[in-house]
Amino acid sequence: MQLEVIGIGGAGCRIAGAIRAAEPSGHSFIEDVFAFDTTDELLTQTADTAVPESHRYRYGDGIDGGLGGDLQRGFEVGEEHVEELDRALDEGTPTAADAFLVAVGLGGATGGGTAPALVATLHRQYDKPVYVLATLPADREFERGGDGAAESDSHSSESAPAAGAAEPSRPNAAANAVHTLERLDGLASAVICFDNDRWLRTGESLVEGRERCNRELATRVSAFFAAGAGGAGSGETIAETVIDASDVGRVMGSQTAIVTLGYGEQDVDTGGSRFGLGLFSAKPDVETSSAVSAIETVIRKGIHGKLTLECDPESAQRALLIVGGPPAWLNRQAIAEGRRALESTIGGRVVLGGDAPRPDGEAVFAAVVLADVGPVERLEELRAAAERVE
Ligand SMILES: Nc1nc2c(ncn2[C@@H]2O[C@H](COP(=O)(O)OP(=O)(O)OP(=O)(O)O)[C@@H](O)[C@H]2O)c(=O)[nH]1
């Protein structure tokens, strides 16, 4: 399937760039990638070469340095500028995409303020699924910074921060996140969540950890959406079970389900054929037991390992499993077993599966999508934190 990826605000633009950078060669799943923000500085520094200049768009003249966490103002700015943003998409070919992916960091005012209006407009204009990819703020952001770095940092350079770099203080982040999620309810087809609190390391600031977090998130998003992309025309890379846009739509739903992503990966021995001149291009011999064990391991990690948003996998109503890697390693029986394991894990009945052969790959991976999960403890925590500041 082909996605129109749109990042809004600091986090959204960085994550959109990271997704573009993680796109596997030969399996392009991105129709276009756009970066929308209210500051020029961020657009030039953070989206870097992953987002072409013609697809970076600054809106909201007069807003410099962000909106100071004022989400109400953010909602107004979103409504005021949404048509202009929609027109900016004409630089690409949004009509050719199967769905939209709007990336945003919940907690701020720019991305969280603009996303609801943009999602509503995209639905109306294009009549295609609009998935939101949202980060949830970390507890460490809520403390009022004693370092005077409040807010300003969210629009700082992408370059690696110095050790101990200042943390942006966002006392309203939990409330902003909750309010944006409320606005998205009924508008977004589904919301894929990434919990910054769980993914940042102990003592690590958001600025220090965000590039790593964005790469982790982009790896998962790319493994999921690239499954049904590319490979056409080159017989050996065609999946046995292709996941297409309607499968993705079935799993994600259209009722703003909360979605979390799991992932497992294991390097495998590909016999060095990748570096040959075609002389060793025959499928390397792979012991069945090694292939089965690799597949079992990555699927177990995908289902029971760290999720982008922690939840009880049993609570999921729908799920999708994609297993990928060098074709010789994709043992059909082990993949079918893994799918049965996922079926018996989740509470719901809809479980889809697909494979993603990667002839040039050097690892076997499993991407797991758990949709319509809940209750989710982290969302409850954010609601409680929001009530405390209001
Ligand atoms: N994973 C991840 N989260 C981020 C990143 N940057 C910011 N965040 C999170 O996203 C939230 C919003 O930050 P930004 O996206 O910078 O905010 P904004 O939408 O530009 O809005 P304002 O700065 O308030 O105008 C923060 O509270 C963080 O939790 C990033 O690069 N990666």
Automatic annotation (TrEMBL):
Residues 142-156 have a biased composition (Basic and acidic residues). It comes from Natronorubrum halalkaliphilum. One of its GO terms (cellular component) is cell division site. This is Tubulin-like protein CetZ. It is found in: Cytoplasm. One of its GO terms (molecular function) is GTPase activity. Keywords: Cell cycle, Cell division, Cell shape, Cytoplasm, GTP-binding, Nucleotide-binding. Belongs to the CetZ family. Residues 5-141 form the Tubulin/FtsZ GTPase domain. One of its GO terms (biological process) is regulation of cell shape.
